[in-house]
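This part of the workshop introduces the protein records we will be handling. To make this concrete, we reproduce a full record directly below:
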Amino acid sequence: MISIVHQGTIKLTVLVRLAVCCALVALLCDATLGMARDGAGRPDNQPNNVGAVRQAYVDPRTITLPVVDGKGIRFTRLSTDEGLSQTRVLQIVQDDQGFMWFGSQYGINRYDGYKFKVFKHEPGRTNSLSGVFISSLFKDRSGSLWVGCDEFLDKFDPVTETFTHFRIDTEDAQGETVPVTHINQDHTGMLWLSTLRGLFRFDPSTGQTIRY
């Protein structure tokens, strides 16, 4: 199940940060004013000890932070009744068009704010999603959506709404698939893939992988 937060005009975090900053400034001012100094710049009634660390005494006080009633915040729950393919959502990504993508244990769900469109593996259709269990979702800097599932690494084509599959092979995999559990991108555009069989660098332009 997915919960969507709708925010009103109240900015609770801004008020809390402002209150904390004001409280810190007040404490620092009290600490500075509370250190009475003599003509030599030393605190009163303190020996001239070069190795001593000067300390300021601050009176304990209670800091009261403003509490704002969150009447402007509400939640909308989305479940299989609204078209979600499966209730356990493990990955969430927003693409450059504003669509929300939810990775579940039964395909990925694209949400436009009103309805879902489900993409899942379709036997016999080679350009459908390659697997069922979605373990990672990632949008790269060019806006492309990458999907790590229990079969291959998939790249989504928003024009044809199809998927291109990239197999991650290792010498010790013995023909087994290598699920991609996490995806990231470095400054050169290379994708870094975390798997149960190690770390891989993937070149999106050539499809080549290097294992580390």
Observations:
- The first strand starts at residue 2 and ends at 6.
- DSSP finds one helix and 14 strands in the chain.
- The chain has two domains: 1-78, 80-211.
- The domain at 80-211 is CATH 2.130.10.10 (Methylamine Dehydrogenase; Chain H).
